[in-house]
Amino acid sequence: MTTRTKPGPRERLLDAAQELTYRQGVGVGVDTLLKAANVARRSLYEHFGGKDGLIAEVLRRSAAQDEAAYRATMAAAGDDPRARLLAVFDQLALVVEQADFRGCRYLAADLALADPDHPGHAVTREYRATVTGLFEVELARLGHPRPAPAAGQLLLVIDGIMAAGATRPDGDPAGAGRELALSILAQAGTG
């Protein structure tokens, strides 16, 4: 006989906040979060020190999941760096087509968190640096003459895909973004 253990208050808060902040933004109210998680206000402060700590932890958790998804997508594409990078854009096309797609949670958080010292900003910066680093490695393997700036350009294209995918879903931002990515990749071997 197996018994299921119900997630504790910390996990329930994280689960609820991860879903609600994606759907409604980081400005979602504390009472809404507490109700969705079915926890007392005290749990929020005990586990996260308050809403700011919860938001930062949700961003950290999401970043780990998204970084793993980037790595898995690239690994599934094989060993060719060009194919690995283009696989990211092919995957993004699937992501932005999902009915519940709401854009980039990191961009939305950065825009909504007015305090430049909010701990969430450090998480989003680290996330972007990690993703850019993944791209830079592949671009260097491809022989791109400027892998670091090109990696930043690819991330900028992804930000554009995510923003346009949320605000102009009838367009083809992923297709346009893939074309821009191809232009960046085409510079490999020209230096």
Automatic annotation (TrEMBL):
Domain HTH tetR-type: 7-66
Record keywords: DNA-binding, Transcription, Transcription regulation
DNA-binding region: 29-48
Pfam hit, one: TetR_N
Keyword Transcription regulation part of the UniProt annotation: yes
Source taxon at top rank: Bacteria
Single annotated GO MF: DNA binding
Cited SUPFAM superfamilies: Homeodomain-like, Tetracyclin repressor-like, C-terminal domain
Gene3D superfamilies: Tetracycline Repressor, domain 2
Name of the molecule in the record: TetR/AcrR family transcriptional regulator
Lineage: Bacteria, Bacillati, Actinomycetota, Actinomycetes, Kitasatosporales
